[in-house]
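Researcher: I'd like a candidate sequence for this fold, 196 residues long. If you have to choose between options at a position, lean toward the conservative one.
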């Protein structure tokens, strides 16, 4: 099955989540495209933000997502930080630009799952993921939450909607990797059954 992992990250947290997901999905037999969305902020401001600058340097090789990537994919796994309890504007702008392929029915029956992070424990991660699922419903996509399907969701970071982390200067306050891997494997397993 073909999986597009599409993320927005400013300081690298959702980039790390996307890389864990890619590794797990490929381990389970998926063909994966790891893609970022276009940055809309003035990147010169990163000179005053070491974490942002580091992320920009580390992600130079990542291609930007296009509508063609959504058409190509059997499943889409989004990852975004929460911004005031909602999807980061950069990812939202990408999603909002898909009206053309939506009108052509090219997003129907795509499996969609989502992950998020925030700088505090109750920073809107669930609401952010659910906002992506609202869009997926409009697309006619098949919404695939992580659910309480594995111990890692309880112990490492998540809620029934998707893996979610509390971002810190040193990574994550919770050991999020296991939950991200559970979600990526679930996307591959379920989508593989649907596309066979």
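Model: Candidate sequence:
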């Amino acid at each position: 099955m073909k999986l597009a992992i599409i993320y927005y990250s400013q300081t690298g947290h959702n980039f790390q989540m996307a890389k864990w997901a890619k590794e797990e999905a490929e381990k389970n037999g998926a063909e994966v495209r790891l893609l970022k969305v276009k940055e809309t902020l003035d990147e010169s401001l990163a000179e005053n933000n070491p974490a942002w600058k580091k992320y920009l340097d580390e992600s130079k090789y990542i291609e930007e997502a296009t509508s063609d990537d959504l058409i190509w994919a059997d499943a889409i796994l989004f990852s975004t930080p929460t911004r005031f309890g909602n999807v980061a504007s950069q990812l939202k702008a990408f999603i909002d630009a898909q009206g053309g392929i939506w009108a052509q029915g090219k997003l129907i029956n795509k499996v969609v799952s989502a992950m998020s992070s925030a700088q505090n424990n109750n920073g809107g991660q669930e609401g952010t993921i659910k906002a992506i699922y609202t869009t997926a419903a409009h697309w006619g996509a098949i919404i695939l939450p992580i659910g309480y399907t594995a111990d890692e969701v309880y112990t490492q970071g998540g809620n029934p909607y998707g893996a979610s982390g509390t971002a810190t200067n040193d990574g994550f306050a919770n050991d999020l990797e296991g939950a991200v891997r559970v979600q990526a494997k679930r996307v591959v397993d379920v989508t593989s059954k649907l596309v066979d």
